[in-house]
Amino acid sequence: MYKILAVLTLAAVAYSQIPQPCFSPPLLSFYAVQYNQEFTTFRNFDAAYDNQGERFAFYEREEGGPAPGRQYFHIIVLHRQNVVYEYNRNSNVCRRAQAGPFRPFGVPPNGRFEGEYYIGGPGETVEAVEWSDRSDVRREEWIGVFSRVNCYPIRTWEHSGIFNQTIHTHIYNVVQGITNPSIFEPPQACLNATLNEPTFLGKSLQGMYHSKRNGH
């Protein structure tokens, strides 16, 4: 009886331990759905993450039927070159902006543990851990959900006070490795693009990594 109680106690202690901040595997390909809460718009991306090369890429899918006037983008973030390319595939116009510091995909060291739960039903569950950049003196501006075992990204939430917009991003079909290396190749129109400030679309995609405030 005492042995059983001891085992149960140890299991409860192990489960109650707060997870440590984690970082995702170095090479990932995935499908991302981004929802802009203020404009009630959805964008669907094929995406890739390369920690080794310090770069991200997002190629917008043309889904959901005809959308007159809708613009579709290919965004490439190359941190080592300190450049973001935002290529409008409809107009063939490319904007170039500074990428800023590289932040690995995952939880910043001072991220705040918010809770853990299971996604799915019996026999097909994934244990997820939720983090934020909330502190004792201010509310969160970023929330990230990652799988507990491998730290695969699942969902992010980001609020921008500057743009007064909130973005929800859900991540699906994650695989390790880069399935489409050409997604990192800037279109010809980007090679001579002038330097501008990134649009909110570009900033929001960068916000998927983790909190910019805590990531510095």
UniProtKB/TrEMBL annotation:
Residues 1-16 form the signal peptide. This is Uncharacterized protein. Keywords: Signal. GO terms for biological process: cell-matrix adhesion. One of its GO terms (molecular function) is calcium ion binding. It comes from Candidula unifasciata. GO terms for cellular component: extracellular region; lysosome.
